[in-house]
Write a structure and sequence with these properties.
mainly alpha; globular
Length: 540
């Protein structure tokens, strides 16, 4: 009896030793080591994006709770019109060389200096054009107040031109933590100053303008001081031609993308006035926050990361799919849950006067969820040296978006505008297909990878929606309904992911382990692999 037990224990111990040795040799494999290193760098960059996004979301929600009760929809509408007009000028002259700086393998001081002076010249021209053309925007929107608001905000072009190449160098070196800390500090300063000016000095929309300028100036100074790079007075035509190729295609994609993603603002602002635009801007801001705070920053992580594996199509496609799946694991339940608890959330956080934004907000939550996993796909085209494809695609998608938004807005008003923006993301499937065709991968891999978080988020959102309506039906207030709905949604999502999609959950934990694994351990494994290699060579 005891001998049998002893033999079983010995067999189990031997099995564990063999598995550990196999895992050790696997970790020492150069390709596995390189893959883990890229996973760790990208994962830590994405982690900083999520941490920073969480912080900015908390700050923005807190600031909006104060500002929404003090300011009026007209104030947000005037600010939205000014930012919209400024954005149009920015996209019209957006010849940014940043993508070329990141994409180029061996970037030199001459390349960086050329990019710096190129960016400064373009952004300086945008400042002059915006300052001079501000009255035309006021005439278009029939709102004279935005003239000097636009002129004040045009100073941000100068700040952007000065810091763009410095920030690109930090992204190329995967220094996303420092960038996110600077961005988070600037956002906190902007929100704090806005509240201070509104509450203490009783200012109107100018509080939002001044706080934005102060935050942009602070971020520029911080990025320059951290990067510690000084441009030289050199300008190379060969570097300019290389950078201009990325810049001109980026300009076209940026300009068409601007109209595609802002046709709703233009329609509401022109036809329905600043008050309705303020309502729509508030509905758009909350779900779009996930896109701006998470999806767009993660796109900045994935591009320099995938550029390290651009020669390997399989790893390129797998890297994008993995990024999209992890984005979906976080954003699908968050946006679905927001749509489910929108009614009590709006009433509790912002007050009764913002209740008309509930239905547009719910619709835009689904749009942001789809857009969050599609927006990083441009990184594949940049890695494959095809920056022209996103630009050409956006031209076709722009016409589709115009027809969708105008048609549905005519039929259903403000809700129709939100529906049109939801429908406008459907052509993105074509862009995904083109990207996966470049990497010789089937598109179904992408959809299969997103199935677990999509199913789990749908189930948990339905549970949260039922919990909210039952709580309110039984006489519970908005605050109780909001708390019960959030608790039900979070717990049901975790249960469904753990019980229904255990493989995906374990993969997430494995990736987290690699991200947080000490760098020295991996380096030691690599060195150990190098010292063991000579022993495998046959004798001379």
């Amino acid at each position: 009896m005891f001998g049998l037990v002893a033999r079983r224990r010995m067999r189990d111990m031997t099995k564990d030793i063999v598995e550990k040795r196999q895992q050790t040799h696997k970790d020492r494999d150069p390709e596995t080591f390189e893959s883990n290193s890229l996973t760790r760098s990208a994962g830590r960059g994405a982690m900083w994006q999520f941490v920073g996004a969480g912080w900015q979301t908390i700050v923005q929600l807190g600031a909006s709770m104060v500002l929404a009760r003090v300011l009026f929809p007209e104030d947000f509408g005037i600010m939205g019109m000014a930012v919209l007009a400024q954005g149009l000028v920015k996209r019209t002259g957006d010849l940014s060389p940043v993508s070329g700086v990141i994409a180029k393998k061996d970037v030199t001081q001459q390349d960086l200096s050329t990019a710096f002076w190129m960016g400064c010249a373009v952004q300086g021209l945008l400042f002059v054009v915006t300052f001079a053309m501000a009255p035309l925007a006021a005439l278009f929107f029939e709102t004279p107040e935005i003239t000097w608001v636009i002129r004040a905000l045009s100073a941000t072009f100068l700040f952007t031109g000065i810091r763009a190449v410095h920030a690109a160098q930090l992204r190329k070196r995967l220094k996303f933590g420092a960038l996110k800390i600077i961005e988070g500090a600037g956002f906190t300063l902007q929100s704090g100053l806005a509240i201070l000016f509104v509450v203490v000095f009783n200012m109107n929309y100018w509080a939002l303008v001044i706080s934005m300028l102060a935050a942009s100036f602070m971020e520029t100074c911080s990025v320059i001081l951290y990067n510690r790079w000084i441009p030289s007075f050199r300008f190379s035509m060969s570097s300019f031609r290389y950078l201009f190729r990325f810049a001109i295609n980026g300009l076209g994609s940026s300009l068409t993308g601007y109209f595609r993603h802002n046709i709703d603002y233009l329609l509401v602002g022109k036809l329905l006035g600043p008050s309705t635009l303020g309502l729509y801007e508030f509905a758009y801001r909350i779900p779009h926050m996930a896109l701006n705070r998470l999806a767009v920053p993660v796109s900045r992580v994935i591009f320099p990361t995938l550029s390290n594996m651009q020669a390997n199509n399989e790893r390129l496609a797998a890297g994008y799919i993995k990024t999209a799946r992890y984005m979906a694991i976080v954003l699908f339940p968050a946006l679905g849950g927001l749509a489910a608890v929108a009614e009590p959330a709006v009433a509790v956080l912002w007050g009764e006067k913002w209740l008309p934004v509930i239905v547009p907000l719910q619709i835009l939550c689904f749009r942001s969820a789809i857009q969050s996993v599609v927006s990083p796909v441009s990184a594949i085209f940049l890695c494959k040296d095809r920056p022209d494809i996103p630009f050409k695609f956006d031209l076709y998608a722009l016409f589709f978006t115009c027809f969708a938004v105008f048609g549905l807005a005519y039929a259903f008003g403000l809700v129709g505008v939100a529906l049109g923006m939801l429908v406008s993301v459907t052509p993105s499937v074509v862009l995904l297909w083109l990207a996966f065709r470049l990497t010789d991968s089937p598109l179904k891999r992408f959809f299969f990878a997103l199935a677990p978080p999509a199913i789990a988020a749908t189930i948990s959102s339905l549970f949260a929606l039922v919990a909210v309506h039952l709580t309110m039906l039984w006489g519970g207030g908005n605050l109780i309904a909001l708390g019960f709905g959030v608790l039900t949604g979070v717990s049901s999502y975790l249960v469904v992911m753990w019980l229904g999609f255990g493989d995906t959950t374990r993969e997430v934990f494995q990736t987290v382990r690699i991200v947080f694994e000490h760098r020295g351990r991996q380096q030691a494994s690599s060195q150990g692999n190098q010292t063991m290699e000579p022993e495998k060579q046959p004798a001379a």
